[in-house]
Amino acid sequence: MLKVILCLVGLVALAAADCGQMERLVIKEQWSSAYGFGNEREVFGEEIWAEVFEIAPESRELFDRVRGDNIFSKQFRAHALRVLGGLDMCIGLLDDQPALDAQLSHLKGQHTERKIPDAYFGAFKQALLNVVSRHIGSCFDQDSWSHCIDSLNAAIKDGS
To answer: In whole angstroms, what is the distance from residue 25 CA to residue 61 CA?
Structure first.
């Protein structure tokens, strides 16, 4: 009986750690609300990167070619919009696993080429969750976001 209970606990933990169908729907709906339109997206990007650089100030060095020293520069704003565009695409593809896998493989190649340390994935996740939470308010689903961003990050970092 103990083995059965341990097995069930393990399965529940595994299911809880994954980005399930309901969580994917929550993420898609909350993202569309938080991400906004037009110039709102630039401000959203500024908020995220300001938080990333507050959490991990040394990460600015990774963005020398896009003026990471100034998140308000044209070069960095363009970079921020590209990153958010990639995230937007991934979130949009959460219900199309083969297409999502292809996009994540592409992003893995980019991040591998740029030698992005694993720690910065955590900094980006924390910044993203903080900013989305502020935009969503009390309806923000911390667990769903955490599970799904962890799944996306894992695929980008090590292809799993």
So the answer is: 35
